[in-house]
Structures are given as C-alpha cells and as structure tokens.
TrEMBL record:
GO molecular function: peptidase activity
Keywords assigned by UniProt, alphabetized: Hydrolase
Pfam families per record: Abhydrolase_1
Domain AB hydrolase-1 as annotated: residue spans: 32-279
Family, similarity comment: Belongs to the peptidase S33 family.
Identification of the protein by name: Proline iminopeptidase
GO CC terms in record: membrane
Keyword Transcription: no
UniProt GO BP: proteolysis
InterPro entries in alphabetical order: AB_hydrolase_1 (IPR000073), AB_hydrolase_fold (IPR029058), AB_hydrolase_sf (IPR050266), Peptidase_S33 (IPR002410)
Length: 295
C-alpha cells in the first residue's frame, strides 16, 4: 500500500470480501487513521465518505469502504451491527492502527455509536453526521415527515415498506428511494435547486440491494436504542446536522450531543441531510477546527 490512493479487496474472517480504499496512504503508515462509514445500507457506497473526507488525505490516512451488502463488496450477511462492527475492527488491524478517528454518516452513524460504546478505547475522536440514537422512533419520524411533506408525492404503501424493511425486491427498494430524493436536500426557498450540489449520500455508482436495507430496518432498527448509553462515550465527539434534515431532524442530534459528555454540536443552517455537499466550505472548516483542537 505505497500509493497515495490505493484500492484493495480485503477479506474478512468469514471469507466476505470488502472493497476498500485508502486516501493519503504513506509508505511508512505514519499518518493517523480516519475511518469513515457511509450511510444507506444496500444503496450508498464509499463514494459518499470519499467525497466528504478526501480533502484530509494530506494529514490523515482516510479509509473508506463499501460495507458488506453494499457497493462492490460481497452481498453476503449477516447484515447486523455486530458484524459490521467486527468488519471495522478487522480493517483497523489491517491498516495497522491501534487507535483511530471514526466518522459515521446517517446509518453509518448508528454503527459508529455502537462501535464507540463497545470499543471506545480504540477511538481518538468520533464524528457523527445526521443520525439518531433511537431506532424505534427514528424511522417513524422520517416516514411521518415524508408523508406530510409537500415536496414529494409518494406511494404511501411503498414508503411504509421501505422504512419498515419490507421492500418487495430491489426494484421496489429503488423506486421507494427515488421518489423521496428531493427531501434529502434543503428546501428551494432556502437554497434554489440550481445552486444545490448533488447529495453525497447518492454519489458514485448507485446499486440497490433490498436485502441489506430490509435487514437494517426490519431487524436492526427495532433493537437499536443507545440513548441510555451515550454517557459512556468519553472520546471527543463532533455532531453535525442540517437544519432542514427531515430524515434525521435536528432534535435527534441535539439529544446525542447533550448526552455525550465531550460533544460539540454544529447545526448547518443551509443544509438538508448532507451538510458536506450542501455547505462544503463550512463543513471542511468545522471539521478541520474540531480535528485540530480536540484530537
């Protein structure tokens, strides 16, 4: 891994192969490691965190990867938080780091929170973007905001299937996501569409895999509730959220930031679900300030 940007296939302990990219790789491996997790299992890919965190490659080794069940990685389960956390641990060891900075966006934030509670001693810093701590209420709030929005016209039954993890097949999953795309961006009265950037959530080659999404929302979400354990996270934490995020509203990030002892909350007033693409200059400034002052 001597090149500045390397792409590798890394095999997990159960034989599943993950598509992994390291940005800013140095031959000595002397730079600190930052691992960033994408959101939207079964849809999003490493293109999202690469676009958001790639600018740090001169200071960090930025490791991004397609989680199992997403992108170019094997579509082999189990698609559970415990298994995804173990995959992170294997990648950390593969990269040769005892400690690192972990970033998680949207669904990746759920995994990051669970990792921080389980392996907090491994973390130098934690970065959470547009996520929630209560998997029972979070999807219901997102669905309610979608169904009451005047920005999208949706098939109600299909949205219920999407957010309950019961999509019929890959096409049903794809149609469910595609019909709600406008709600991921800031409203037009805040930022005119012609001035909006493509959401990092859907950058790269998009491939819809409903089995991963279904497992995430039908099996994982009902069990995910870390609110009472947030106080256990001692690592410096940056919590980022868009003011106009209707998937993981500001109140969700406020709850997380208020409960983690050493957390800093930053609300992006002109952003929806993706501040890195909605307000990229501010995102880079806030992130760099946090890394410089807290890590």
């Amino acid at each position: 891994m001597a090149d500045n940007k390397t792409t590798s296939t890394v095999t997990m302990d159960d034989g599943v192969r993950l598509n992994v990219k390291i940005l800013g790789q140095d031959s000595a491996g002397s730079k600190p490691l930052l691992i960033s997790l994408h959101g939207a299992p079964g849809l999003s890919t490493l293109a999202e965190p690469e676009a958001s965190f790639g600018y740090l490659a001169n200071l960090y080794r930025v490791l991004v990867f397609d989680a199992r069940g997403s992108g170019a990685s094997d579509k082999i389960g189990p698609f559970t938080h415990d298994r995804w956390i173990e995959d992170i641990e294997i990648l950390r060891k593969w990269a040769g780091a005892e400690t690192f900075i972990l970033a998680g966006a949207s669904y990746g934030g759920f995994i990051a929170l669970d990792y921080a509670i389980k392996h907090g001693d491994r973390l130098q810093g934690l970065i959470l973007r547009d996520t929630w701590a209560n998997g029972k209420v979070g999807p219901m709030n997102a669905l309610a905001n979608i169904l009451t929005s005047n920005r999208v016209k949706v098939d109600v039954a299909r949205q219920v299937r999407l957010w309950s993890g019961t999509s019929l097949n890959d096409q049903d999953h794809a149609e469910g996501v595609q019909e709600i795309l406008p709600i991921f961006t800031p409203p037009p009265e805040i930022v005119p569409p012609k001035e909006q950037n493509e959401s990092t959530e859907f950058q790269g080659s998009v491939e819809f895999y409903s089995a991963t999404q279904n497992a995430a929302f039908s099996e994982n979400m009902p069990r995910f509730d870390v609110r009472h354990r947030l106080k256990e996270i001692k690592t410096p934490t940056l919590v980022i959220v868009g003011r106009h995020d209707y998937i993981a509203p500001v109140a969700c990030s406020e709850e997380i930031a208020n409960a983690i002892p050493n957390a800093r909350l930053e609300i992006f007033e002109l952003s929806g679900h993706s501040p890195p693409s909605d307000e990229p200059e501010k995102f880079e400034r806030i992130l760099s300030s946090f890394l410089k002052s807290e890590i």
